[in-house]
Protein backbone atom coordinates (compact mmCIF):
# COMPACT_ATOMS: atom_id res chain seq x y z
CA UNK A 1 0.00 0.00 0.00
CA UNK A 2 0.98 3.57 -0.65
CA UNK A 3 -0.57 6.23 1.55
CA UNK A 4 -1.32 9.71 0.21
CA UNK A 5 -3.66 12.51 1.15
CA UNK A 6 -6.45 13.63 -1.15
CA UNK A 7 -5.31 16.12 -3.79
CA UNK A 8 -1.68 15.10 -3.33
CA UNK A 9 0.18 14.36 -6.56
CA UNK A 10 0.82 10.67 -7.04
CA UNK A 11 3.58 9.55 -9.42
CA UNK A 12 3.82 6.02 -10.84
CA UNK A 13 6.22 4.10 -13.00
CA UNK A 14 5.75 0.83 -14.87
CA UNK A 15 8.81 -1.07 -16.05
CA UNK A 16 9.07 -3.81 -18.63
CA UNK A 17 11.48 -6.57 -17.63
CA UNK A 18 12.65 -8.37 -20.75
CA UNK A 19 15.93 -9.39 -22.29
CA UNK A 20 14.65 -7.98 -25.61
CA UNK A 21 16.03 -4.44 -25.80
CA UNK A 22 13.84 -3.57 -28.81
CA UNK A 23 10.57 -3.23 -26.88
CA UNK A 24 8.73 -0.16 -25.64
CA UNK A 25 5.67 0.34 -23.40
CA UNK A 26 2.59 2.55 -23.61
CA UNK A 27 -0.09 3.24 -20.94
CA UNK A 28 -3.39 2.41 -22.67
CA UNK A 29 -6.02 2.07 -19.91
CA UNK A 30 -5.88 2.97 -16.23
CA UNK A 31 -8.89 2.72 -13.90
CA UNK A 32 -9.39 3.07 -10.17
CA UNK A 33 -11.82 1.24 -7.91
CA UNK A 34 -12.60 1.15 -4.19
CA UNK A 35 -12.66 -2.68 -4.45
CA UNK A 36 -9.42 -4.48 -5.33
CA UNK A 37 -11.40 -7.43 -6.71
CA UNK A 38 -13.93 -5.53 -8.83
CA UNK A 39 -12.85 -3.15 -11.57
CA UNK A 40 -16.24 -3.11 -13.33
CA UNK A 41 -18.96 -2.01 -10.88
CA UNK A 42 -17.68 1.27 -9.44
CA UNK A 43 -14.70 2.60 -11.37
CA UNK A 44 -13.10 5.89 -12.21
CA UNK A 45 -11.24 6.14 -15.53
CA UNK A 46 -7.87 7.85 -15.50
CA UNK A 47 -7.07 6.91 -19.12
CA UNK A 48 -8.91 5.13 -21.88
CA UNK A 49 -7.39 4.24 -25.26
CA UNK A 50 -4.41 6.40 -24.38
CA UNK A 51 -6.56 9.48 -23.73
CA UNK A 52 -6.44 11.18 -20.33
CA UNK A 53 -9.96 10.86 -18.86
CA UNK A 54 -8.93 12.71 -15.72
CA UNK A 55 -7.80 16.34 -16.03
CA UNK A 56 -4.96 15.78 -13.55
CA UNK A 57 -3.51 12.74 -15.36
CA UNK A 58 -0.09 13.43 -16.90
CA UNK A 59 2.16 11.16 -18.93
CA UNK A 60 5.79 12.07 -18.20
CA UNK A 61 8.82 11.63 -20.44
CA UNK A 62 10.84 8.56 -19.60
CA UNK A 63 14.61 8.12 -19.70
CA UNK A 64 14.18 4.62 -21.18
CA UNK A 65 11.79 3.12 -23.72
CA UNK A 66 10.96 0.17 -21.42
CA UNK A 67 9.61 2.49 -18.69
CA UNK A 68 6.30 4.40 -18.62
CA UNK A 69 5.90 7.26 -16.13
CA UNK A 70 2.62 8.92 -15.25
CA UNK A 71 0.86 10.68 -12.41
CA UNK A 72 -2.40 12.15 -11.21
CA UNK A 73 -3.97 13.93 -8.28
CA UNK A 74 -5.03 11.52 -5.50
CA UNK A 75 -8.77 11.23 -4.89
CA UNK A 76 -11.28 9.16 -2.94
CA UNK A 77 -14.56 7.46 -3.78
CA UNK A 78 -16.87 9.63 -1.69
CA UNK A 79 -16.09 9.14 2.00
CA UNK A 80 -17.40 5.59 2.32
CA UNK A 81 -14.30 3.90 0.94
CA UNK A 82 -10.94 4.25 2.72
CA UNK A 83 -8.84 2.91 -0.19
CA UNK A 84 -8.47 3.32 -3.93
CA UNK A 85 -6.99 0.55 -6.06
CA UNK A 86 -5.49 0.97 -9.52
CA UNK A 87 -5.51 -1.35 -12.50
CA UNK A 88 -3.62 -0.32 -15.61
CA UNK A 89 -3.19 -1.98 -18.98
CA UNK A 90 0.01 -1.31 -20.85
CA UNK A 91 0.81 -2.18 -24.43
CA UNK A 92 4.19 -3.62 -25.36
CA UNK A 93 5.44 -2.89 -28.89
CA UNK A 94 8.56 -3.16 -31.00
CA UNK A 95 10.70 -0.07 -30.68
CA UNK A 96 10.55 2.12 -33.82
CA UNK A 97 7.50 0.26 -35.21
CA UNK A 98 5.60 3.43 -36.01
CA UNK A 99 2.50 1.53 -37.12
CA UNK A 100 2.17 -0.07 -33.65
CA UNK A 101 -0.27 0.98 -30.93
CA UNK A 102 2.55 2.50 -28.86
CA UNK A 103 3.30 5.11 -31.50
CA UNK A 104 -0.34 5.93 -32.34
CA UNK A 105 -0.92 7.64 -28.98
CA UNK A 106 -4.56 8.49 -28.31
CA UNK A 107 -6.91 6.46 -30.45
CA UNK A 108 -10.55 7.42 -30.80
CA UNK A 109 -12.99 4.77 -31.85
CA UNK A 110 -15.67 6.00 -34.19
CA UNK A 111 -19.20 4.65 -34.03
CA UNK A 112 -20.62 3.51 -37.33
CA UNK A 113 -24.04 4.44 -38.56
CA UNK A 114 -26.48 1.51 -38.44
CA UNK A 115 -27.11 1.99 -42.18
CA UNK A 116 -23.50 1.31 -43.19
UniProtKB/TrEMBL annotation:
Top-level division of the source organism's lineage: Eukaryota
Pfam families in UniProt: Zona_pellucida
Stretches of the chain forming a coiled coil according to its record: none
Keyword terms, alphabetized: Disulfide bond, Signal
ZP domain location: 1-109
Record carries keyword Disulfide bond: yes
InterPro entries, per database record: ZP-C, ZP-C_dom, ZP_dom
Protein's UniProt keywords contain Transit peptide: no
Protein name: DMBT1 protein
